[in-house]
Specification:
Blueprint lengths: L2 H10 L2 E4 L2 E4 L5 H45 L1
């Protein structure tokens, strides 16, 4: 078996889990594959936004710490 055949065989055996049921990707309709792609795009966007929120929260915490330091200095 060549590497290409091994890759194709592995790709043919890829599955997703939908409500506890393993489904081969090759068994999905084109419409179902399109919906899966849409979900993957949205999942990536959600992960990106969650990362941005984490960065913003870290910055906010730093600003709050700096503010506390300024308040103590002034009084």
């Amino acid at each position: 078996m060549t590497d290409t055949n091994a890759f194709e065989q592995a790709a043919n055996n890829l599955t997703i889990n939908v409500d506890g049921q393993e489904i081969k990707l090759n068994d999905l309709s084109d419409a179902a594959r399109s919906q899966l792609t849409n979900m993957q795009v949205v999942d990536k966007q959600i992960a990106d936004i969650q990362q941005q929120i984490a960065i913003m929260q870290t910055a906010r915490n730093a600003y709050a710490t700096a503010l506390k330091g300024e308040i103590v200095v002034e009084h």
